[in-house]
Design a protein that fits this description.
The complex is a heterodimer of chains A (about 525) and B (about 80). With about 525 residues, chain A is an alpha/beta fold. Chain A has helices at about 15-20, 35-40, 45-50, 65-80, 105-120, 130-135, 140, 145-150, 155-175, 195-200, 210-225, 240-250, 270-280, 295-305, 320-330, 345-360, 365-370, 385-395, 405-415, 465-480, 495-505, and strands at about 5-10, 25-30, 55, 85-90, 125-130, 180-185, 230-235, 260-265, 285-290, 375-380, 420-425, 430-445, 445-455, 485-490, 515-519. Classes of the chains: A alpha/beta (about 525), B mainly alpha (about 80). Chains A and B meet through helix 8 of A and helix 2 of B.
Chain lengths: ~525, ~80
């Protein structure tokens, strides 16, 4: 269980209950206004607790100091505990102060700007955009001075729930626990009307009136693809009717190209969704399905309980804002982008192409024909972010399921003698970027594999064997007397194929945990 | 009755005790967790759930379940 410590300069104790309700962190709440001493005193309970994450909320009204003090304290803690990640709330002052209209120079804005640049310069510092929550829900609905004067609490009950939800969302996002694919219905979801009845010319989809809602919705969906998320269609229509809309209706923002896979037919949606998951080689728990029909949503939910199926807004004018608040924030957010993200749709599409070729020819011919080229090399610092991303997101081909953050990897490689090795993949369809990585140690004539993972996108093409062979070569160069290779396998419901791989490569194990073989 | 059930579930939520344990015997000086912070958490939750507001003076004397219930019923009655 991950550990979360909470520090504040006011009493935010009721947050504890809210966090316990819907998340599974071991919690530590520092005493009232103890944030600074907890961070600076090496003997404090915070150091004892040794959290994976620290959340800091400082109330701007009560924070009378220079914001640099906060940064200094956090830096101090980070020096002692470099892998801990910080989530710091930005500052909001009450929207009523004694000042002249012309000045309107608010301290919280200056604070927030410094916080943004601080977070940009430090990879373990993330911002919780509390200001956004206050704008969204309104200051007076979140704060009540009564509790402040009675017990040093500023928030109302509802504000604690809002804050807890946001903390959960951002922490999930920091750990890469986000969804990968958004599956969309068509009629009355992507456009207004039913194409089978209204025809492609008769749909509600223009810049004016109700049609604008669907255009805006499509624009938002398009933005998701630039963040590295992937789209699919699952809809009950005649495929030719639907394709006609994409081909002929000039108002469409999304093109057929934006979807990696399309299931436009009259079979049940749950069957189609299962096929989508199989084709893309990902779990149902990586998908979100949006459909305006309550009946279809119920059916799909009943068949596929692990699938996320958000309720569709009954007031259609709320569609764009609902989408951002109820779908994007909880399921499709990113703390930052990597190079591979921009190209996600193309990657998945190439994969679907390869899948279809695989069915046509024999496997060996298919592989030869693909003309796979791997580039296996020792990773330098600029690559650690991608290595961390792989370690957090890979579930199937993952030897030990150890999840590392960027700074943990940096620490391991710079200080603890680990070597990170990455594997980039290219074939005749294009480059997939870095698809695999391993963290190894060379000790006592042994090559110890701490982590070994390969993205599910390239599985089933013998990349695993080729990658391992290249790792051995690198190890041999570094330590020629290396005799044995050892890997610690952690079996889960999803990573059975790693075991098959180890056995295929002649590793031997007595306990199904430690696998070894001679080099 | 409906108010009472709702209030009981607020107590359950705030203090983590089963509904069956909430009643006339639920008092501030005997219930663990109903300290000054517990008092605030309780009032915050009641105010949110029933959309009412207690004054500082009222809050100070709401020291057992019945007192909270009666004060609440008076507030809801006044509407």
């Amino acid at each position: 269980m991950n550990k979360l410590a909470v520090l504040s300069n006011i009493n935010i104790d009721p947050l504890k209950n809210q966090l316990q309700k819907n998340s599974s962190y071991e919690l530590y709440f520092a005493g009232y206004n103890q944030w600074q001493s907890e961070l600076l005193n090496l003997n404090s309970k915070l150091y004892d607790f040794c959290p994976d994450f620290v959340f800091i909320y400082l109330n701007a009204e009560e924070f009378k100091a220079d914001i640099q003090l906060l940064f200094l304290a956090v830096n101090f803690y980070q020096n002692a505990s470099p892998t801990c990640r910080f989530l710091i709330s930005n500052f909001t002052l009450p929207p009523f102060t004694v000042e002249t209209y012309k000045v309107a120079r608010r301290v919280d804005r200056e604070f927030n700007e410094s916080l943004v640049s601080y977070s940009k310069d430090h990879k373990n510092i993330f911002i919780l955009d509390f200001e956004r929550l206050v704008l969204l829900h309104g200051y007076t609905s979140m704060f009540d001075d009564k509790y402040w004067y009675l017990g040093r609490i500023k928030f109302r009950n509802s504000a604690f729930a809002i804050l807890a939800e946001e903390i959960n969302n951002v922490l999930n996002c920091m750990q890469g626990k986000v969804k990968k694919v958004l599956i969309l219905d068509l009629d009355n979801t992507l456009w207004g009307g039913v194409v089978g009845e209204d025809g492609w010319q008769g749909l509600q989809l223009v810049e004016e009136g109700v049609g604008r809602i669907y255009k805006d919705f499509q624009r938002l969906i398009k933005q998701l693809t630039s963040l590295g998320f992937v789209l699919a269609i699952c809809s009950k229509n005649n495929e030719s009717d639907a394709v006609e809309v994409f081909d002929n209706n000039a108002e469409m923002v999304l093109g057929l190209d934006d979807f990696v896979i399309r299931k436009i037919n009259w079979t049940s949606k749950s069957e189609n969704i299962v096929e989508i998951a199989q084709t893309l080689n990902i779990g149902l728990d990586s998908l979100v399905f949006i459909d305006d029909s309550a009946v279809e949503r119920e059916l799909v939910k009943r068949e596929l309980p692990e699938l996320i199926v958000p309720d569709f807004p009954t007031d259609i004018t709320k569609l764009p804002s609902w989408f951002i608040l109820s779908v994007v924030y909880p399921y499709f957010s990113k703390t930052e982008l990597t190079l591979e993200d921009g190209d996600k749709t193309a990657q998945y599409k190439r994969n679907a192409l390869r899948e279809s070729e695989k069915q046509k020819t024999s496997f060996d011919n298919f592989l030869r024909d693909l003309n796979i080229k791997l580039d296996v090399r020792i990773a330098d610092q600029s690559i650690y972010k991608r290595v961390a991303q792989l370690s957090q997101k890979t579930n199937q081909f993952n030897l030990s399921l150890k999840r590392y953050s960027e700074s943990e990897i940096e620490l391991m490689c710079d200080k603890q003698g680990f070597i990170a090795i990455t594997c980039s993949y290219e074939d005749k369809y294009g480059s997939e970027g870095i698809v695999g990585c391993a963290l190894i140690e060379l000790k006592n004539k042994k090559l110890l594999i701490d982590s070994f993972m390969i993205s599910c996108r390239v599985l089933g093409r013998k990349v695993d064997e080729l990658f391992l062979a290249d790792i051995l070569q690198i190890a041999k160069k570094k330590m020629s007397e290396c005799e044995v290779i050892e890997a610690n396998y952690l079996q889960t419901a999803k990573n059975e194929l790693v075991k098959e791989f180890l056995q295929r490569c002649n590793f031997i194990s007595v306990d199904n945990v430690l696998f070894s073989r001679k080099i | 009755m409906e108010v009472e059930n709702k209030l009981k579930s607020v107590f359950t939520d705030v203090f983590g005790i089963p509904v069956s344990k909430v009643g006339v015997t639920t008092k501030q000086n005997t219930l663990e967790g109903w300290d000054s912070l517990g008092q605030l958490r309780l009032i915050m939750a009641v105010e949110e759930v029933f959309d009412v507001s207690f004054t500082v003076a009222e809050i100070a004397i709401l020291t057992d379940y019945e007192l909270v219930l009666n004060a609440l019923l008076r507030k809801l009655d006044g509407r």
